[in-house]
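hey m, so remember when u said the tokens were messed up on ur end? i reran from scratch. heres the input so u can diff it against urs
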Amino acid sequence: MQRRFADAASIEYVDTDDDAQRETHEQIIATIRDRGLIYPVTVIDGAPVYDGAVSYPGILRAIETRLAETA
């Protein structure tokens, strides 16, 4: 990610079993629960993009798309 996007994108892992993380990310966790998504969930700019698995190529494409939209 760093090599491909430099400072334009970053990765953050959130352990939703951790009380402090649940409190910090309460809104997105509620969205995940309300939409019935399956963990792990990939979120880009606050919006769930993928659930049930982690797809590195999919994440790269989603980030490229998002960066192109904001350019």
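this time it looks ok to me. The chain has one domain: 2-70. if urs says something different then somethings off w ur setup not the seq
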